[in-house]
Design a protein that fits this description.
Radius of gyration: 21 Å
Largest sheet: 8 strands, mixed
Order of helices and strands: HEEHHEHEHEEHEEEEEHEEEEHEEEHH
Distance between the termini: 20 Å
Bound molecules: flavin-adenine dinucleotide
Strand order of the largest sheet: 4-5-3-13-14-15-12-16
Number of helices: 10
Length: 379
């Protein structure tokens, strides 16, 4: 998010910008841990709009930003078993279509045809958007970072933001572990740590970190999922399949098969140690949907942090309490894919341009006012 805002500001001629990163490398927070999924299939019109603009930018990323991002539009397939979810997703399909998304309602048999190898027991229907897909989060981040730097933005690493000084309720200075920077504007793009930046100003930024695991599976005996033996056992494409009720999902990733699932017992916290005792629970659910995983070897795993807001929608825009304080955080597990459009919108707001985007659903003030509905289609 930080790199996207910096790139878009620079594109608007605003290059007097410093991007501050605590770690040695960029994209080692949530962005470095994510599954790379990009989808149009959201339940909230504002998220559909962010997806349309972002995926379109990813399609032209190399030409516009100069770095390839390995976008594969092999689709997302949501499998639905409960009648309440069938009804909700049928409504979503109508909404997405009304917003120009190429999405289809599929019977279980039709779903099996796009993703061979699935066990469809209990599945009542599915939604499929062939324009969804997967891309490279590191490529997107580095592309924005390099492009911003080339236009004059400064990126400082291994530097921690420690405090923000105000003058008459306006941002005046950022204090870091390597000295202070005078500035009238601060953008909080601290992902799962966004709350701690807000706390420096006494502003409640309700973003909670939540650990999520990703596992990589290889076929038994060191073979390849491309071997003819697996042609009907796993999809040949990089289609991302989600069993919506359990949140188990997978897609092909390099030579392996990437999969994950939310843990209903997880509590908020910054710990990203891999809990190997969680793997058997995931496998139990996974093999019911993708039997090929029963004999697979899990070669490695990692965990990262979702950045959850109470309504699972992001916070994008200015604080109403502090002049010069902006947020772009709390994307609740779908931020990689929205970074191009979200960064563009916030850069327009900061530059004083009309973003041509209704930011009400993403306003920080909504949590106190409890005025808007959130995103239901999270994984
Ligand atoms: C397992 C997993 C799977 C996911 N899958 C997907 C997916 O398929 N598709 C998708 O769109 N999204 C996915 N996400 C969510 C996505 O990764 C995030 O929404 C997104 O990366 C958020 O980006 P960000 O820039 O806000 O946060 P981050 O990438 O975390 O960046 C915040 C940065 O701020 C820095 N920082 C924090 N505090 C300070 C400080 N005080 N001083 C200096 N620097 C600081 C951190 O070091 C970090 O680099 C997934 C997340 C996880 C964990």
């Amino acid at each position: 998010m930080g790199c996207s805002v910096a790139w878009h500001l620079a594109e608007r001629g605003i290059t007097n910008v410093v991007l501050i990163e605590r770690e040695q490398q960029l994209a080692t927070g949530s962005t470095g841990k994510n599954a790379g999924g990009v989808r149009h299939q959201f339940s909230h019109p504002a998220n559909i709009a962010l997806s349309r603009e972002s995926i379109d930018m990813m399609k032209h990323f190399e030409a516009r930003v100069g770095v390839p991002v390995d976008l594969h539009q092999d689709g997302y397939l949501f499998l639905l078993s409960k009648s309440a979810n069938v009804a909700a997703f049928q409504k979503n399909v109508a909404l997405q279509k009304a917003h120009g998304v190429n999405v289809q309602w599929l019977s279980p048999q039709e779903a099996l045809a796009v993703a061979p190898g699935l066990d469809m027991a209990g599945v009542r229907g599915a939604t499929y958007c062939p324009d969804d897909g997967v891309a490279d989060p590191n490529g997107v981040t580095q592309g924005f970072a390099k492009g911003a730097q080339a236009r004059g933005v400064e990126i400082v690493r291994e530097t921690e933001v420690m405090g923000i000084r105000l003058e008459r309720n306006r941002v005046a200075e950022v204090r870091t572990s390597r000295g202070s920077i005078a500035t009238p504007i601060v953008v909080n793009a601290a992902g799962p740590w966004a709350k701690s930046i807000g706390r420096m100003l006494g502003v409640d930024v309700p973003v909670e970190p939540e650990r999520r695991h990703i596992f990589i599976a290889q076929p038994p005996g060191g073979g390849s999922w491309d071997d003819p033996a697996y042609s009907n056992a796993v999809p040949a494409s990089k289609i991302l399949v989600i069993d919506f009720e359990s949140t188990f999902y997978f897609h092909r990733e390099g030579k392996g098969l990437l999969f994950g699932m939310g843990d209903p017992d997880e509590t908020p916290g910054f710990d990203i140690t891999v809990r190997w005792d969680f793997l058997p629970k995931v496998i139990e659910v996974a093999i019911r949907r993708l039997p090929a995983l029963a004999d697979a070897a899990v070669s490695h795993a990692w965990a990262g942090l979702y950045e959850m807001t109470p309504d699972h929608n992001a916070i994008i825009g200015p604080s109403e309490d502090i002049d010069g304080f902006y947020c772009i955080a709390g994307f609740s597990g779908h931020g990689f894919q929205h970074s191009p459009a979200a960064g563009r919108v916030l850069a327009d707001v900061i530059a004083g341009r009309d973003p041509k985007f209704d930011l009400v659903p993403f306003a920080l003030s909504r949590f106190a006012a409890r005025t808007v509905r959130g995103e239901a289609n999270i994984v």
